[in-house]
């Protein structure tokens, strides 16, 4: 056993060395291409500046990467069935539109902007059927599908998916083969600027600069169609918008991220970053939001996240944490987060740079010695260590 483990470590170390050299070779070739073929567009360096609502939500043509992200927990309204005689369902959903600038990406040693000049969208949509213990997702890209981006408002369209913001309401729609989503989301609390001003250098060097704002609670109504059966749904959602730079040859590999909506009308966002060497507790943080939208910022020393169990994906064999105990002594808050179903892995059906886990969860614990419950979404990125994934990342980072 000792001999086997020793050999496995040596092979893994050799694999990492080869991939590191491959990454450096491709990165050097990328830099030479940039020097030989200077781009006419100067990308936004994501520097600190005043935030204006709703303009901070609008797409910017020269931001390297930005995204609009919704998660929510829905239930069928049994008094307003659109299709009759349906069994009520509890549902979790994720809807995200990413916008990438091709100048910030590369394919082999070439900047992607040598092939495409305009920014492009990517959509991720996932549905967790908590009642029937099932999960499905779709991914689409503006590299292969029709898209439309308006920069003087929030109005994004990609193939059969769309996102708009008007009169303080978001509308999201997606129409896929077996899943249709049509939701109206109205913020019921103020927009939250994380890191006090909405701006932070999340990791350095190289610097990962970001703007990060959240509507932590949105009243959500609409309909969802599953296999030709349409439900009227209602519930609560969470919305994030982030703008971020995209440094090359970065040590950052992933993150653990939690959004939590407690049933006492308070919310909590927590994250910790993952480097190629694993989790780093020096780069994490959070925001607690009280009933009146007042914020309490949490430092690394003020939060303790302990994985309790793990789950191995039957699709990819990736091992993810699968439930957590979270303690925040400063708030007298202790609770457990547990997935509604284990299998909520996204990306394994497609040729993606990585697979990740993103799923709906239940929350139970104590707040100031009183019972508290809630709902959560958790995102786990950086656990995909497959050789295939490492090669794709080395060639495209």
Outline the structure in words.
It is a single chain. The protein folds into 3 domains: 1-38; 43-247, AttH-like fold (Beta Barrel); 251-397, AttH-like fold (Beta Barrel). Helix content is 11%, strand content 51%. It has 2 helices and 25 strands. It has helices spanning 2-36, 387-396, and strands at residues 65-76, 90-100, 106-107, 110-111, 120-129, 134-141, 147-150, 155-158, 161-166, 169-175, 179-187, 192-193, 199-201, 209-226, 229-244, 252-262, 267-275, 278-289, 295-298, 304-312, 319-328, 333-339, 345-346, 356-367, 370-381. Strands 1, 2, 5, 6, 7, 8, 9, 10, 11, 12, 13, 14 and 15 form a 13-stranded antiparallel sheet that branches. Strands 16, 17, 18, 19, 20, 21, 22, 23, 24 and 25 form a 10-stranded antiparallel sheet that branches.
Task: Write a concise keyword list for the protein shown above.
397 residues; mainly beta; AttH-like fold; 3 domains; 13-stranded antiparallel sheet; 10-stranded antiparallel sheet; 2 helices; 25 strands; 51% strand; globular
Question: Could you provide a short overview of the structure?
Answer:
This protein is mainly beta and 397 residues long.
Topology:
Layout: H1 2-36, E1 65-76, E2 90-100, E3 106-107, E4 110-111, E5 120-129, E6 134-141, E7 147-150, E8 155-158, E9 161-166, E10 169-175, E11 179-187, E12 192-193, E13 199-201, E14 209-226, E15 229-244, E16 252-262, E17 267-275, E18 278-289, E19 295-298, E20 304-312, E21 319-328, E22 333-339, E23 345-346, E24 356-367, E25 370-381, H2 387-396
Antiparallel strand pairs: 1-2, 1-15, 2-5, 3-4, 5-6, 7-8, 8-9, 9-10, 10-11, 11-14, 12-14, 13-14, 14-15, 16-17, 16-25, 17-18, 18-19, 20-21, 21-22, 22-24, 23-24, 24-25
Helix pairs in contact: 1-2
């Amino acid at each position: 056993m000792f001999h086997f483990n020793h050999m496995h470590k040596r092979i893994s170390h050799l694999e990492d060395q080869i991939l590191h050299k491959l990454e450096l070779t491709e990165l050097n070739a990328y830099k030479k291409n940039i020097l030989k073929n200077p781009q006419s567009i100067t990308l936004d360096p994501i520097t600190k500046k005043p935030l204006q609502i709703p303009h901070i939500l609008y797409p910017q043509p020269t931001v390297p990467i930005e995204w609009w992200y919704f998660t929510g927990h829905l239930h069928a309204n049994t008094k307003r069935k659109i299709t009759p005689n349906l069994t009520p369902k509890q549902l979790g959903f994720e809807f995200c539109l990413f916008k990438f600038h091709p100048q910030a990406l590369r394919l082999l040693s070439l900047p992607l902007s040598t092939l495409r000049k305009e920014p492009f969208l990517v959509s991720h949509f996932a549905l967790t059927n908590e009642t029937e213990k099932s999960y499905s997702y779709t991914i689409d890209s503006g590299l292969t599908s029709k898209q439309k981006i308006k920069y003087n408002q929030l109005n994004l369209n990609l193939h059969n998916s769309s996102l708009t913001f008007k009169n303080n309401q978001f509308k999201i729609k997606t129409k896929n083969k077996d899943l249709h989503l049509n939701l109206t989301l109205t913020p019921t609390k103020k927009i939250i600027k994380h890191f006090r001003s909405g701006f932070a250098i999340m990791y350095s060097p190289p610097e990962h600069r970001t703007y990060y704002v959240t509507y932590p609670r949105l009243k959500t109504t609409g309909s969802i169609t599953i296999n030709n059966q349409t439900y009227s749904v209602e519930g609560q959602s969470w919305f994030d918008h982030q703008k971020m730079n995209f440094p090359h040859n970065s040590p950052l590999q992933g993150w653990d991220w939690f959004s939590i909506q407690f049933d006492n009308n308070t919310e909590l966002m927590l994250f910790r970053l993952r480097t190629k060497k694993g989790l780093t507790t020096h780069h994490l943080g959070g925001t607690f939001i009280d009933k009146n939208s007042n914020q309490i910022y949490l430092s690394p020393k003020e939060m303790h996240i302990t994985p309790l169990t793990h789950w191995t994906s039957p699709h990819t064999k990736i091992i993810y944490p699968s439930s957590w105990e979270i303690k925040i002594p400063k708030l007298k808050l202790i609770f457990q987060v547990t997935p509604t179903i284990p299998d909520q892995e996204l990306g394994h059906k497609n040729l993606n740079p990585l697979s990740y886990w993103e799923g709906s969860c239940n929350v139970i614990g104590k707040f100031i010695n009183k019972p508290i419950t809630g709902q959560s979404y958790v995102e786990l990125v950086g656990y995909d260590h497959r050789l295939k994934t490492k090669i794709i990342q080395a060639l495209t980072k």
